Amino acid sequence: MKVLVTGGLGYIGSHTVVELQNEGYEVIIIDNLSNSSIEVLDGITAITGIKPQFVKLDLKEKQQVEDFFKRHNDVRGVIHFAANKAVGESVENPLMYYENNVNTLVYVLKEVLSLKQQNFIFSSSCTVYGQTDQLPISENAPVQAAQSPYGNTKQIGEEIIMDTCKVKPDLNSISLRYFNPIGAHPSAKIGELPIGVPQNLVPFITQTAIGIRTQLSVFGGDYPTSDGTCIRDYIHVVDLAKAHVIALKRLLDQKNKTNYEVFNIGTGKGSSVLEVVNSFEKISGKNLNYKIVDRRKGDVIAIYAETKKANEILGWKAELTLDDAIGSAWKWEQRINN
Ligand code: NAD
Q1: pLDDT score for 112
Q2: Ligand 1 binding site (Cβ under 6 Å of any ligand atom)
Q3: How many Å apart are CA 165 and CA 187, to the nearest integer?
Q4: What residues have CB less than 8 Å from 284, skipping those under 6 apart?
Q5: Is residue 180 classed exposed, middle or buried when 0-12, 13-18 and 19+ CB atoms within 10 A define those classes?
Q6: pLDDT < 50 regions, the chain
Q7: Which pLDDT tens digit goes with each residue over 275-311?
């Protein structure tokens, strides 16, 4: 059963490839290595004992995408991770984001329509909910005006797929709206590899603890939350990866209720920034150098997932804890700095 994973050498993609191979799927990865390293392939191979097929290809190259699908028309499912994901960078360079996140989606989706089995899974994000006061937030909540070009590419991406599904009944697609993926594979053979200054909390914490950064800035200590810091739903990347395998199986087994479905993928539990810091200090036994600074513009105060739909309809539930995720992230940081 051949599955194409675009962006499969990236953070979430690589963990998903591991889970797919563990379940017996034959994986082909497309990645242009713009935000990943070829060594990730060795990590996947070391964990699973199987080297996935890898094709270095830039999905912005429409002709190359067409040629790839001509050569691989036996693909039974496509999981599309490839995209740029830095919110700040998207504000600075919106066209780069629209080109890489929207054009590539269109090129890949067009080719999926030429396959015998048209199963497509899309990496969406809780950013589509924007500033919200509905907590926990369910899939029925209205999509709000995007806070950044990056967030907009996810909204547009969902709309492109939804509109296509309306007129192409053979296309079956699921968008997974991820909350905040953190952690690494427990083997510490793959994990998050931020290029430059990390945009996300957990790699910033582990890099500060290991001495790459001097101090963690906690943006805002006066929010109306239990300890004044922002609240997010941190989901272990291994749990998130497993959600993709379950979603793919749902499509392959034709268990989907409509040909376009959306699921929140989170734990359903909100954790504050200071709770994450405390978890890190407890697990690592280290004191973290952090400072509470002014609020950062555009930050949502609190968001966490309503997970009923994913639990009951998709049949997926997060199993790992915040401590599990933090422990794995710390193990990974120590390994890559050894
Ligand atoms: P990542 O940057 O680690 O992985 C993306 C991979 O895609 C990288 O390996 C990159 O080299 C590749 N890629 C990018 N553009 C490409 C192109 N034109 N052609 C071929 N390969 C290309 O990111 P990630 O954290 O693994 O995120 C995966 C997906 O999940 C993205 O779509 C992202 O927007 C989405 N997402 C991520 C988060 C998060 O916090 N990490 C949250 C919500 C949604």
Answers
A1: 98
A2: 7, 9-13, 30-36, 58-60, 81-83, 85, 100, 104, 123, 125, 178, 181
A3: 39
A4: 209, 330
A5: buried
A6: none
A7: 999 999 999 999 999 999 999 888 889 999 999 999 9
Query: How much distance in Å is there from the Cα of 330 to the middle of ligand 1?
Result: 22
Residue spans of the domains in the chain: they are 2-183+235-266
Measured CA to CA, the distance from residue 300 to residue 323 in angstroms comes to 23
Structure confidence at residue 286 (pLDDT): 97
What's the topology of domain 2-183+235-266?
Answer: Rossmann fold (3.40.50)
Tell me if the pTM is above 0.85: yes
In one-letter notation, the amino acid at residue 52 is: P
Q: What is the pLDDT of residue 78?
A: 98
Among candidates 292, 302, 297, which has minimal Cα distance to 221? 292
Q: What is the pLDDT of residue 116?
A: 96
**Mutation probe of ligand 1 site: the residue of 5, 6, 12 with most atoms within 8 A of C-beta:** 12
